[in-house]
Fold this protein.
Amino acid sequence: MMSLFGKAQEPVTPTESIYDISINSIDGNKIDLGVYKGKKILFVNVASECGFTGQYKGLEELYETYEDNLMIIGIPCNQFGGQEPGNAEEIQSFCQKNYGVQFLITEKVDVKGSNQHPLYRWLTEKSVNGLKNSSVKWNFQKYLVDEQGRLIDYYMSTTKPLSTKITKNLTL
């Protein structure tokens, strides 16, 4: 595995399973990530008032194309420019009305800082995910996990959902 700087980066054994992490859906029901074993999962921190919000369209297209082998989980976050100010009902309505979103949307959480959700601790800390450290820089940063719950990679906000950087990992 190569790092961004061309140095070999050896994976380590994750200290916990992503499938053991608890997060709620936008309507407050607990999501069992374990039901997605055998599928890849793309986690995306989303926001309704961001310059990247149009990526909802690409995310929905990606989901519809690969839904047999991929679950997309949108995670609303208001930590970047206050661009997700809505409550659960407003977020859900926005996603459905404007983009016909069928993939899973969670409760609004913090993806960084002292109140960082455990899911994002797993996604961003090598000591937990076994692969690499990262930090969430902005809305619509994406993290791809394989069928066995191992981190594959992460993609910055500028990476479009249908980019070959992502899709090449979905057809393997």
Remarks:
- The radius of gyration is 15 Å.
- The helical segments are 55-66, 88-99, 118-124, 126-129, 164-167.
- The chain has five helices and seven strands.
